[in-house]
Structure formats: C-alpha cells, structure tokens
Amino acid sequence: MSSKKELRIGMVGYGFMGRTHSNAYRRVGNFFPELEYQPILKAICGRNQERTQAFADQWGYESIETDWKKLIARDDIDAVDICTPNNMHAEIAIAAAEAGKMVLCEKPLARTVAEAQPMVDAIEKAGVPNTVYFNYRRLPSVTLAKQLIDAGKLGRIFHYRANFLQDWTISPELPQGGEGLWRLDNAAAGSGVTGDLLAHCIDTAMWLNGGIKDVSAMTETFIKERVHTGTGEKQEVTIDDACMFHCHFDNGSLGLFESTRYARGHKALYTFEINGEHASIKWNLHDLNRLEYFDHRDESQERGWRSIHVTDSDHPYMDKWWVPGLSIGYEHSFVHQIADFLKALGEGKPCSPTFKEAQETQKVCEAVLESAKAKSWKDTGVNW
Amino acid sequence: MSSKKELRIGMVGYGFMGRTHSNAYRRVGNFFPELEYQPILKAICGRNQERTQAFADQWGYESIETDWKKLIARDDIDAVDICTPNNMHAEIAIAAAEAGKMVLCEKPLARTVAEAQPMVDAIEKAGVPNTVYFNYRRLPSVTLAKQLIDAGKLGRIFHYRANFLQDWTISPELPQGGEGLWRLDNAAAGSGVTGDLLAHCIDTAMWLNGGIKDVSAMTETFIKERVHTGTGEKQEVTIDDACMFHCHFDNGSLGLFESTRYARGHKALYTFEINGEHASIKWNLHDLNRLEYFDHRDESQERGWRSIHVTDSDHPYMDKWWVPGLSIGYEHSFVHQIADFLKALGEGKPCSPTFKEAQETQKVCEAVLESAKAKSWKDTGVNW
Amino acid sequence: MSSKKELRIGMVGYGFMGRTHSNAYRRVGNFFPELEYQPILKAICGRNQERTQAFADQWGYESIETDWKKLIARDDIDAVDICTPNNMHAEIAIAAAEAGKMVLCEKPLARTVAEAQPMVDAIEKAGVPNTVYFNYRRLPSVTLAKQLIDAGKLGRIFHYRANFLQDWTISPELPQGGEGLWRLDNAAAGSGVTGDLLAHCIDTAMWLNGGIKDVSAMTETFIKERVHTGTGEKQEVTIDDACMFHCHFDNGSLGLFESTRYARGHKALYTFEINGEHASIKWNLHDLNRLEYFDHRDESQERGWRSIHVTDSDHPYMDKWWVPGLSIGYEHSFVHQIADFLKALGEGKPCSPTFKEAQETQKVCEAVLESAKAKSWKDTGVNW
Amino acid sequence: MSSKKELRIGMVGYGFMGRTHSNAYRRVGNFFPELEYQPILKAICGRNQERTQAFADQWGYESIETDWKKLIARDDIDAVDICTPNNMHAEIAIAAAEAGKMVLCEKPLARTVAEAQPMVDAIEKAGVPNTVYFNYRRLPSVTLAKQLIDAGKLGRIFHYRANFLQDWTISPELPQGGEGLWRLDNAAAGSGVTGDLLAHCIDTAMWLNGGIKDVSAMTETFIKERVHTGTGEKQEVTIDDACMFHCHFDNGSLGLFESTRYARGHKALYTFEINGEHASIKWNLHDLNRLEYFDHRDESQERGWRSIHVTDSDHPYMDKWWVPGLSIGYEHSFVHQIADFLKALGEGKPCSPTFKEAQETQKVCEAVLESAKAKSWKDTGVNW
C-alpha cells in the first residue's frame, strides 16, 4: 500500500452522519483498491472530550480535537469533513477553505441561500476540492436511473414526482433541540423537512431531470409546541413538519414533491418516479437494490413494470461488491461518494455535487419555503 | 320473482359507461336476491338507430329510442340513467327530474358548477331519488377503508394523497372529439383530467376524509394541437392533460392530488393513501382486491404494512360473491352501486353520492381549475 | 336476437359451482354477442325442492327438477351441466351421454381413474360435445402464459412449479361431510387436496408444459378425526389434507407441486412458475390480472421481472371487457370457458379440456396418491 | 482500544468467501465496540504468492503464507478461518484443531458425512471454539423469524418450504472446474446445488423448525458435459444441477425444498415460508430487509400479510447500524456471525452452528443425494 497517496481527514461532528462518513472512509480502500488516494482518519473533533475520544477509539481516528478551529489549523489535515448540525456548516466550511483544506460537507449546504453564498464564494476563491453529501445519487439503483435517462431511454419527460415520508415525530411528547433532535429546532436546522428531506429529493431531481424553474408550495406544522431540550420549556415549533410543492422544470416537465414526518407506517420512504414519452422509472429507498422500469417499446402483450434487482456486475458500482442477487445497503452510498471524490481528486476533476451545485438545491428549498409563506408561486433563480 | 317491484330503466347513451351500467342492472338480481326492487331494462336511447338496436339486442333492452325527450316522456319509464358525454348531463337530468323520473347520472355531474346547480335544484324540487356514479366508493376494498376510518382506527388524520395516472393520450396522432374521444374535447367534457379522473379522487377523498376547504393547483396541456374528429382540422387542445393540487381539508389534514394521461406505464392507476396518528391506509385500482393497512398499535417488532386480500365474507359486499381468495373486478363496483340504490329506494332513503353531494365535488374541481388559471389559492366553498 | 341458436341447459346441483356456471351462462351473451349459440337456462335440478326453486328464481331458470334422471329424460334439454359432488359425476355424465346430451362437467372428472373411464367411453361412444371445467386456463393471464410458451419465448424448459395453498380447514372443530363440507369427506370427494386443488395445478401444467411421466409424492392428514355432519359422530378423516410431489415431464423438465389447506394466511393461493432457457413466467390467483414475465434477452442492465397487468385489449379475452387497467375477476374464467364451448360448438370442434383430456389429469392425481401410499415413484401412464 | 483482547486470525483462501470474511473482521469493531475481543488480520494464505500479497494489501493482512501448514504452525495465530473449496476443508480443519487453533469454517462443512466426521471429532477432542458460516441465520429478518417462532407465535407448525433459485449455469459454454467454477466440479465441491445452496436452506430450516427425519429426493443434471478448466477437455458433469425433496420434520410438519441453478430470472433467490396454526412467515434473500408475517389473531377484516421492514432499533442487530428505514446488505450477516463468535468467546460459550451442528446438516444433504440416487425415501439419522 506504500504507493498510495494519503488524504488526511479531520472530521467535525460524531453524530449519526459522523458514523456514516467514518465508515465510508474505512471501507473505501477495501472495495476500491485501484484508487490512488487513501483516506487516513487523522482527527475527529467534538465538544465533549470523553465522547469524542470514545468515537475515535471506535472508528480508529488517530487523535481528537475539541475545538474545530484547532483542527483546521493543523498541518497534518488535508480535508475537513463537516458532520455538525446545519447552523455550523458555514463557519467551519469557510474557515477550512480559507485555510486551504478540501471540504466535504453534509447536506443541506446551509440553513439559507444567504448563509450558503459565502461558503460557495470561499470554496471557489480557495479553489479547493469539495463535495456535498447528497449520498442517494450514489446508490447503484439511482445511478442506473441516471444512466437510463442520459441514454435517452425515456424520451421527452412529462412528470417527475418524489416524496420522502417518515413518521418519527408524530408523538407530541418528543422534545425539540439537543442531540439527535436538533432537526426539530429551526435555529439549528434552518427548516424542518424541507432542508432535511426535500433537499435530497430536489438534488436527485435536478441531477436526473434538470433545473427547477418555479414552485408553488404549502407547509404545515402539526404539533405547535414542544419542550425544548435546551431550556426545558415548552416552546413554539417553528420548523415545517410537512411540505409539498408542485413546480416546472426547465425542460417543460411538471414536478410534484412531498415530504413529511407524519406519514404513519413509513420510516424513511424516499421515492421518486419519472414518466417519459417512451419509458418510466420508479424507485424507493426501502427497497434500494431495486429499480422499477417500464419500457413502452416492449412488445405490447408483454409490457410491464420491470423490477430490476440492481446487483449485477454491470450495474453501477456493483462490480466492487458481491455476486448477482446479493444486496447492499444504505451506507454503501457514502462509500461510493468517497470513492468518487478520491477518484476525482486523482484526476483533478470536481466531484458532483459541489458546493456550487448544492447552492442551487438550496435556492429551490428557499423558494419553496417562501412560496408556502407567501401563498404564491416563486421563481427559484436556479441555474442548473 | 313475482313479489318483486319493478324499476323500469330508460338509459341514454350506449358507450363505455352504457355497458357498465347495463351490466350492473342485469347482474344485481342474481347476487342481491333479497332486494325488493328489480331493474327492468325498458329502453335504451341513442342517436344512431342501428347501433342503438344492436346494443339493445346485446343487453336485452325491450325497446329503443333515438330522441331522449321521447324516452323521458314515456310512462313506462321510472328512472333515467344518463351515460352521455358530460355536456348532455344537465339538459337530460333536468328534464327527467321535471318529468318526475328518478335520475342516475354518470360522473362528473356536469362541466361546471354553474351548469350543475340547476340540476341539483331540479332534482331537489322534484324530490326524486337520485345518485351519481362515483362507483369506486363501492369497491369492497374502498368501502373497507371507509369502515376502518369511521371506526376511528386511524386517529387524527395528517395526510391524504391520491393520484390517477394514465398514459393513453401521449401520442400526438390521437385526435380529439368524436366517439370515444370526446374526453379530449373541452366543449363536450368541460375539462380534461380534472373532471374525468380527479373528480373520482375528490369524491373518494371527501367521503373518507371530509370537506376540502381550499386548493392551490397547476395544470398543463402537453400536446397543444390535435386534429378534431368533427372538423378534420388541427385545433387547439383546451383540456388539461395533467393537473395537480395541494389543499387543506376541514379536519386540518393536508391533501395532495395529481392526475395525468401522460404517465407512461400506468393504464388506470388510481391510488390513495391516508396517514393517521395511529394507522395508515393505501389502495390502488390496479390491485383492487387489496387494501394496504398499517397499524402502529401492533407490537413494535411485528409492525408492517398488511396486504389485506379483501375477499372474505365479512368484507363489504363480499358475502354476495364467491369464497375467500377469489377476486372480483372493476364492474362489480357498479353492481354494488345499483344494489345500494335499490336498497335505499326500498327504505325511502337517499343513495350517496346524491346530486347535491356530487355538486360539492364539482366545486372542488372548479376551484382547482380556477386556481391553476389564476396561479393562486382558491376557496372551494364546499359544505360537506 | 332471433337469429341465435339456442342451447338449452339443464344443470344438476346448485351449490357454489352451480352459481359460477349459472352466472357464466347468463353473462356470455352480453360480452360475446358474436356467438352463434346462446344458452337458455331451461332447468335446474336439486334434491330439495324449495331451495331448488329459490335458486331457479334467483338465476332465472325456467323450471326445476328434483330427480336428475327426469332432467336427462327431458326433450327440451340439449346440454347437461354437472355441479354435484364428485361421487355423482360418473352416473349423471354417463346417463346424459347415453341420452345424447352434451355434457359439461365440473372438475375433477371423477374420484378415480376407474370411475372416470366409463365416463370417457360413454362420451366418446355418444360423440357428444363435452368439456370439463378446469376454468383457470381461461383467465387472460394464464392464457397469455400459454401464448408466450407456444410462441417459443421460453426456449427449453427446465422447471415447472405450482402450489395451491389454502387455510380453511385448520380448525379441528370443522366437521366433515354435508353441504359445503363434502370436500372433507373421502366418500363424496374421492380425495382431499389432490382432486380438489392439485387437479387444477396438473391440468394447467400439462396444458402449458406437456405430459407428466412419473411422480414421487407425500401426503398427510393433519387432523385425524372430525365429526361427520351426516352421522353426528367423530370419524376418521380419510382425505389428504396436504399433498406434495416432484415429477418428470415428457419434455425433460422437472416439476414440483404442493397443495394444502393448512397454509395459514393463504385463502386460495394457486401459483405457478415455469423457468425456461430464455425466459420465465410466474402467476398467482390472488392477483389474477397480472402475469410476471422475465426475459433474459432484455438488455442486461435493464432486465427484471415484468409485472404485466393483463388488461389491454390485445390480451386474451380482454377486448370483450372494459378498458386498459380495469380488472376482471374469478368468475370471468367461467364466462370464457362457456364462450369457448359455444364457439367450438358452432365450429364443430372439441372444447378443451375434454373428458378424454381430463382423464389424463385424473391419472396423474391417482399416481400421486398411489405414490404417497407406496412411498415410491409411480409412472402415470399419461398420454398427453 | 488497549483494553481489548486480540484474536489473531489466519485465513486460508482469498476467493469470494475470503472477501466476505475479511470484511466482517474489519468491520465488527466499528459496529460492536462493546466486544471484549477484537480480530487482528494476522495472515492470509494462498497458493499464488502475488495474488495473495495483493489480497493482503487490499484487506490489511499483516503477512502472507503460501502453505497452509505453515500458517497453522505459526504461534501468532489464534484462529484459522477456512475459505477454500470444499475438498480442502477437512484436512485444514483437522490440522488446525490438532494444533489447538480455533476454527471458523465456510459451509458446507465437507463434501460428505464421512469426510466431516473426523473434523467434528478433531474439534471436539481439541475442545477449541468453532463455528461454520451458515451466515443467513444472522440476517436480522431471519433472526426475527427465529424469535417469533421461539415465542410461540406460530403455534403448531404444518409446513416448511424453501427454495434457492439461481440461473448462472444455464449456458452450456460455461466450463467446470478452476477458480470461481470449482462449484461445478464434483471432485472439489462434493455435490452441486445440494451442498452449495440446499445446505443453507437445511441449516435455516432445522434452526427454525427442528430436525429433519426422512427425505425423498430427485436430482437432475441438465447439461451433461462441460469443458473442464483443468484439462481443457469436455468431461461429464457429475454435480446435481437441480435438487428437490420433500421430508418430515421431527415435529410432524412437512418440508418441501428445491434448489437449482437453472431458474431463469433468479440470481440468488433463497426463500422460505413456514405455516403455523396461528401465524405464518415468509422471507426471501432478494429483499433481505423484509420479513412477511401473517397473524390469524388479527381482527378478521384487517388480516393481511405484514411486510415488516426489519430496520428498527428493536430488531435483531439493528441497534448497531443506522436509523429506521435504512437498509443493510448481504455482507452484514457475516459481521453478525463474527460478532456472535467473539461474544461467545468472551462468555466461554459455543457459537452456533458448531461443527457438530453443521454435521447434522451434512447428514440431510447426504440423505437427499442418496434418496435421489436410490429413488426411495431415506432416513437422515439427524439428531437435532
């Protein structure tokens, strides 16, 4: 392995996303041995020293920091990976870029377009490699959808629809804020389901189907007050519990999006469907090894939705894993994103979605929230 | 059978709906032998004498008419069944009601709220039994959904979503207007997918989940011009090819609706889902013997969406048919509606949906079309 | 309708099968108006006069008989339809044939090969049109399977597997014998699941895949004693509650069959699958409007099981019913069989499966039961 | 991490199974940090030095060996993991046990019962911890099935059915023997689908449902000759391409098993279903995050097969991974088996299935092959 170039990672945040990213760094070399770069888990940074150390022990980080500014200041760190709550993304990313570090940031890029813009500016000014973890693109089934679309299989597109349904916040007893629950706290998260879930749907949609031009949205907060973990007091809930919108894509197709955490029976059911003149595609995250495909060019008596088990060696990324029929899981999407980042690094190319691209998704999220508030259509200003 | 009371039917129109209604009248006595009333196929009315006679022969109508006014004038007709294109509903229904006939009308009630209002008025003034064929309510799986909701199984409702997806008008070569294609002609149909498909979704939705208060909609006409069968000329297409809207229900839940005839791969995929605090329900027309049900009160490790094969004798209407596991089809929904109409007749009760109820659905359709045109929210004025 | 030839039906038995056959006779003219022959429900025969009359009233039979010999003796009967328990099939069929009547017999043909042989002989000697109600062949999805196989789509066949799973006899409290329960009484039925359920599987299998050469079987009776409705006493249960066998087809492929009434959760789950060199087919009765089809010749990345919703007008029989996407049900298989019988009658051709063909299925059933008893392989002697 | 006890692994074989085991060793510490033991990848052994070194580099083995006897002789190896073709299992396992090493052996235990017996004897004599990789038990969905059964949810069991369907050997051009294809060579594999695929089915079945008493089987070799990679000559194929059998379990239930590599459309479709008096369970490997469960005690109108997405934190093993709704994959079953082995090691307990238990599965496999050859029932001699 001596011929490998090291990419020394400093990660900020050791929550759920810290685990998924750490796992990706640790596995990528086993499954993508051809990569020139190999990640080294140099340091993990968190505010609680004891827990940060425990995380370092569990995942094999060489050292810990409790102040992210010190992490960024270290000479032995090449890339900063940001896994904090959303409200910390901007400050860390800008400082890291200014220090000449590569930056890998968990999605959404920031809480608002305004907050994200200096991040994009700093990254571009520094000219550092960067990426944002819209990881679902890298599931083999989703990448296969991209390939089918890019090959022109669907023809003119008429419809794109997506939803992301969860049910974990239905109980009014659930508090807001604090560890694991900052997603319910608008100050930390910037929004509710829009930034958390719809951002994924929007990123995938624009990747597959091009820019979203304008939107008309509705949001709702079903549970109006929750105890805040920070204060122990009941406080107004200011996130969106549910959000739905319709829109026009630049290519003339219509979009319909919905997200909620109040859809009883659905844990993390991200689905999308795209209807074209010749063919259609359906996908859902609960059955992520499958892609449903309908091709109208099949002989008429034999037409039907094909349930493709995306586990053959000629399916995207699948030559790296097992044998046909054997499934992979959620975490593999992160391994693939890291692999693509390392490959792009070796080739001197950008790794999509970059900060700049993620900012376009941010614009749609913001237009959606504004539209819902104003009860009117909004242009997104997206340039995809 | 001499103890049965006869209900002498005069039907106007012998197209697709004429067949479904005729079949229902012919079968209801075999499967609901307990009914006091039995329908007698007295007369069928159509403009083309030869084809009307052929239809009469095929379905066992005793006589034919080629002028619906004559049909209505006949003393030996108790009830008029209207299966014409939408633009004929009002005139016929009003005349029939004024002649003291019962009226059974295919949906949608009319092309517009304004057109429908005198129909409702005439029916109410005449005090005649009446019903509108929103037949999908009467599928056992859909009626089971209603029973579960009415029994309070779902608790507070958060979400209702429905779509009705077809793909039969994608080809630009398809003409508009004329027999079988009047649904593409705004003058005959009054609207495109909104009146044809969304009307079904809206009727079911309000039946299951109560009134729809306000809507925000978008429509699209993908193919701008088609040859008109009547003129042989290319003419502007003025129907909505696709329509989607979000809305508030009176009970505080959110609705999301979509309909299109450009969803490649879906022939007549009407689906709905309703998410409650405790339980959720999903349904689709392509698998109409099934109802999907998720109950959060199940033990946590064993929770899952239940695929209920709605073919047991304790399921709605199913004691009338075969044995558990043996499916019924689309046409049975009409048999059930006729059975319910005859039963209600015997009991002196109304058979839902009445003209008055169907007018509420009409109001939602109209608000949807107006909202799409105005690009703004519209109140529906629905009183459910 | 005056140009139609009448086929005057006398039916024996008014149980479950009496209803399915009666419905088929009543509907066939509405949906197959081109047929030269039209059935006339001349007489229904049952032992209980009152209930026979009620059935006649419900289904529109012109007259009743309480002695099937009188029915057969009537000059105004052209065809005898046998819906009795299995132990009555032979005597009635032989007498009917000898009286020159056409014979339509519910499956299985008889209780044993020995009992069936004189039936076949009598039919052949009389030269009367005849058929046996292995109705599942006539579901559009199953007929489509036949067409795909006959078109050579599957190539060399390797495997055929079928099962028929029910769960209605699990309770030990269920009695045997008597109305509705004669299927648990070996004297009336001749066997348990083998004649009742596997007979269907075997008929379909040989129709689709050719003759079955030899079998190795196992049977089981889980509940050893049940109260007999006739005597009121607990008696040994002598039917097979479950039966499974493997076999060789004449074409070299392997078969695997299973049937049981103790598969909790399955009401009437008849399934089959056939695996060929190039393509495979799957089907199940609970979703009878669908056929699953996998074609290895599809482009490798896009291969998947296609779920064909068999409701297009170019699917078998479906031009007679509704529009694409709209389902039909179980009973339609009987309408199709009657339609095919009437068509064959008009053309002077046999309507498969004939008595002679049904006797081949009987041979497999008997070999299966003998194999299970002897715990050894048995040749079937089938000549398909 | 200094407090951990090291378990120094020496692995023999670096094929497909070498990768799955290596991955498991590398990941177990990240996801099961509470374990007292941590595996150290001390040495990998293969005949080809260059490729062995490449594998060592890819997976982080500290050293390589090209002679397994040297590996076993090393003092710095605590446990030997055997990933070779089946014909090498016995010699290596016996030598390792005699050297006092723990032994983890890929399934099937050996080619025959006779070959396996001295392995079991050596292991028992040495008293070393041991396990055999019947990994599918450790999928959360399969372990959940075990828990439901052990909790008595199903009641008396009537039926167990399983099949394992593949389609990768249909082409007659595929050679036998050599790397990746030794599974087609009877000398190396000992049998075809019986040892490769049915062994899994049998292990799961006896784990869930108890011992298999006697069997009646059929095998087939569809392609009679294939080029042997070793000789370059066409040679007779002596493995079983397909195998099916029915059987009795000790608990009185009936079993039906089938395996083939000629089921077009199925890549690795291992399925099982178990039908009990009160409830039933279904599972398949292509959708391994799901378990289907039917409970007859549900209210009658609401009964249906529940599709349990086995990704909640109270599902087996799932507290170690992500959040509800996020899938895991095939390889996780190996991580779980290693975790269970390490846990058992810490507790001084055996880790099932042990060599002794795997020998019982071997007995069923052998009885199956003998039954097929003799065309008669065979007792298995299993003592579960």
TrEMBL record, chains A, B, C, D:
<dbReference type="Pfam" id="PF22725">
    <property type="entry name" value="GFO_IDH_MocA_C3"/>
</dbReference>
<feature type="domain" description="Gfo/Idh/MocA-like oxidoreductase N-terminal">
    <location>
        <begin position="7"/>
        <end position="133"/>
    </location>
</feature>
<dbReference type="InterPro" id="IPR036291">
    <property type="entry name" value="NAD(P)-bd_dom_sf"/>
</dbReference>
<dbReference type="InterPro" id="IPR000683">
    <property type="entry name" value="Gfo/Idh/MocA-like_OxRdtase_N"/>
</dbReference>
<dbReference type="GO" id="GO:0000166">
    <property type="term" value="F:nucleotide binding"/>
</dbReference>
<dbReference type="InterPro" id="IPR055170">
    <property type="entry name" value="GFO_IDH_MocA-like_dom"/>
</dbReference>
<keyword id="KW-0560">Oxidoreductase</keyword>
<protein>
    <submittedName>
        <fullName>Predicted dehydrogenase</fullName>
    </submittedName>
</protein>
<dbReference type="InterPro" id="IPR050463">
    <property type="entry name" value="Gfo/Idh/MocA_oxidrdct_glycsds"/>
</dbReference>
<dbReference type="Pfam" id="PF01408">
    <property type="entry name" value="GFO_IDH_MocA"/>
</dbReference>
<dbReference type="GO" id="GO:0016491">
    <property type="term" value="F:oxidoreductase activity"/>
</dbReference>
<feature type="domain" description="GFO/IDH/MocA-like oxidoreductase">
    <location>
        <begin position="144"/>
        <end position="281"/>
    </location>
</feature>
